[in-house]
Amino acid sequence: MNITPISNYHFNSYKLEQQNKPENTSEKNTEYNQNKKYISYPANYYISFGNNLNISLIEQMQKTKDKKKLIELFRKMPQEIQENCEQLVLRFEKEKLSLEDYIKSCIKQPSLFWQSPDKIESNVWSVVNKFKKEGLSIKDYLSACIKQPSLFRRLPDTIEDNVKDLVKKFKNERLNSKDYLKACVKQPQLFYQSPDTIESNVRNLVKKFENEGLNSKDYLKACIKQPPLFCLYPDTIENNVRNLVKKFENEELNIKDFLRACVKVPSLFGRSPDTIESNVRNLVKKFEKEGLNSKDYLKACVKQPPLFCQSPDTIAEHINIMKFSNINSKSPLENNNFWEKILKYPIKLSFSSLTLLVKNLIIPKMFENTVIPKELKGNSSFVPKLKTYLENHPDNIFELNVKGTDKDIEVLRKCIDELCDGKNNPFTINHIK
Q: Distance between CA 274 and CA 247 in Å, rounded?
């Protein structure tokens, strides 16, 4: 097999030459025309000037999602390629590297098909050993390589330099290698991204919002939680933040408050302003006739930033559950007081439907005429506590007499089924209309 590594210069020259040369269908130039297909791959891949590799085979493998079909196509590859892949997978058998995953990596990075298993194994273990003290595991690094196949071929010394140089640049912000490596595993391109580029992204973004109180230490923490932020252009993030605030200028949302929310939930930095606006306005629209307005709800979102991201339908269900629970309480709150209570403690809106029902309706109704047991009291872990209680009292049965809409009852039944987890259901629901 004749395989030639090519530089960017030679690759571009080869591409230009093929673009300017007319198609030649003569038998003499069949090989030349066949090789034109290889220019679709990025520079620095290998070009095979022979017929040992069928490019259409790789294209078929790229498209197939069926595991068996993928392996069948792989078996049509040259024997040398099959042996390379199988040997590499065998070397990481303990780490559960699958042939299917490695083939997919090779499809993304075709030069891996010919790469020596010894060389790839050496690259992987060298990187892991260089960061052994920082806790980088072979399993995590292999996972990163599968996501970003070029890592299989990257020089370990280069990767080590990238990580250590970046950490050094943020020494004053107390960034450490252990935390940054965790970010790299989640966002594998960070292993080979230029430290200068990453530093520029972070510092330029902070500079854009320094007047609004954003500092490097806080933003760096946000990047560690949400590693793609290291790679996003500062202008893109600035655009997201300022556009979102502008959409709610009539509701008096300001950049400083929204930035604080972004630091708590870093995904907000990269989220589309249109999506966030839609989440907020659609939720408010569902309850505006009952007294909810955008200004008050935005204040709740700033206190509980995940609300910016959550589906309006999900939050609406949580609100309806709280309304349902309020109707069935011994002292129901009036409409205004109900909204005041919810918006004052918006974290409750992010609880699961099951948690809200267990805390606010199911447990109070179970012990409506008696004292709630000590093991069911507290401020957290309501669902696990109740599950344990039911397991310890298998003979107890409970009647829940509740008011509400048919949809409320449907949600209640669904949550009770989830609570019982397929085991005996001790609850009887009496719907009072």
A: 9
Record the pTM: 0.81
Half-sphere exposure of 204 (CA within 13 A, CB side): 16
pLDDT in tens, 280-337: 999 999 999 999 999 999 999 999 999 999 999 999 999 999 999 999 999 999 988 9
Q: Give the long-range contacts of residues 225-230, CB within 8 A, separation 24 or more.
A: 225/266, 226/266, 226/267, 226/269, 226/270, 227/183, 227/184, 227/186, 227/187, 227/190, 228/187, 228/270, 229/201, 229/266, 229/269, 229/270, 230/183, 230/187, 230/190, 230/193, 230/198, 230/201, 230/202
User: Which residues, in sequence order, are CB contacts of 334 under 8 Å at separation 6+?
Assistant: none
Q: With CA atoms as reference, report the closest residue to 136 among 178, 188, 164.
A: 178
In this structure, are residues 403 and 327 in contact, taking their beta carbons and an 8 Å threshold? yes
Beta strands 398-403; 427-432: pairing state = parallel
Measured at the CA of 57, the angle between CA 54 and CA 59, to 5 degrees, comes to 115
Q: Which of 93, 25, 108, 23 is nearest to 61 (CA)?
A: 108
Spatial CB neighbours of 206, under 8 Å, sequence gap ≥ 6: 214, 215, 216, 219
Residue 173, token pair as written in the block:
């912000």
Q: Are 110 and 45 in contact (CB under 8 A)?
A: yes
> Mean pLDDT over residues 190-212, rounded?
97
Phi, psi of 401 (to 5 degrees): -95, 110
Judge contact between 87 and 114, C-beta under 8 A: no
CA distance 384 to 230: 38
Structure tokens at 57: 């085979």
